[in-house]
Amino acid sequence: MSEAIEVRDLVVRRGKKTVLDGFSCVIPRGSVTGLLGPSGSGKTTLMRAVVGVQIVASGTVTVLGHPAGSTPLRRRIGYLTQAPSVYADLTVAENARYFASLYGLKAAAADEAVEAVGLTAARGQLVANLSGGQRSRASLACAIVSRPELLVLDEPTVGQDPVLRDELWDHFRRLAADGATVLVSSHVMDEANRCDRLLLIREGALIADDTPAGVKAAAGVDDLDQAFLNLIRRQEEEVAA
Ligand SMILES: Nc1ncnc2c1ncn2[C@@H]1O[C@H](COP(=O)(O)OP(=O)(O)OP(=O)(O)O)[C@@H](O)[C@H]1O
Predict the structure, then answer these.
(1) Non-local CB neighbours of 176 within 8 Å, separated by 6+ positions
(2) Record's PROSITE patterns (predicted)?
C-alpha cells in the first residue's frame, strides 16, 4: 500500500463551526507533504484528525492502513503540536530520554534526536530556561525520538532562525528519504518549495493538491506566494459565480 494517509469525505465540527466539510485527500508514503492555508483554515484540525485526537462528525481517516487513532498506530506516529509539550522542570536531554524510555529505547536514541534538532549545546539546560524556539525544538526532538513512520508537525519552524530552519528541513527530507512520511504545516513559502507535495486548504476545503511545480503551473505563475493568491482568488470567483 503506497498511501500513508487517506482521508475520505471528512466532516469536522468545532463549536458551532463546520471546520472541514467533506474533505478528502491522499498522502503518499515516504514523502514530505506541506499543509498550507490561511490562519483558521483547518490545518491543525486535519492534523488532529490524522493523529486520532479529533472527534469527527462523519467520513473516514485511514493512517498506515488502520483507522486513525487505533491502537496499532500508537507507536508509529510522532506528533508535534504548536504548543511545546515538554517538561519544563527537566533538561532537554532528560526530556528526550524520558520519551525514548516510553518506546523502550536507549539514551543514545534520545541524544541523536537532540542533535538532529540542533540542541546538543543546550542538552543540559532546563527546558524552563530555554528560548521559545529552543523549547519548540526540544519538543520536536521528543516527537522524532522513536523514528516514527509518520511524523505530523504543526508549524515546526516557527520562531527558528533561517539557518536552523534550513537544517530542520534537511532533517525532514532525510527522514522521508529513509521511508518516513512527513506531514508539515507552514506559512512560509520557501519551505513549501521543499515539499514533495502541497495541500492548500481554505475554509476547510482543498483548493490544491499537487507538487510545488504543479501548483505554480496551475496558477500560471513562477512564485508560490502568488500561485496561492491566484488559486484562492480563482476559488472565490467560482464560489461567487
Ligand atoms: N476548540 C475549538 N472550539 C471551537 N472552534 C475551534 C476550536 N479550535 C479551533 N476552532 C476553530 O476551527 C477553525 C480551524 O482552526 P484550526 O486550528 O484547524 O486552523 P489552522 O488552519 O490550523 O490555523 P492556524 O494557521 O492559525 O494555526 C478556526 O475557525 C478555529 O476558530
Answers:
(1) 30, 31, 32, 182, 196
(2) ABC_TRANSPORTER_1, ABC_TRANSPORTER_2
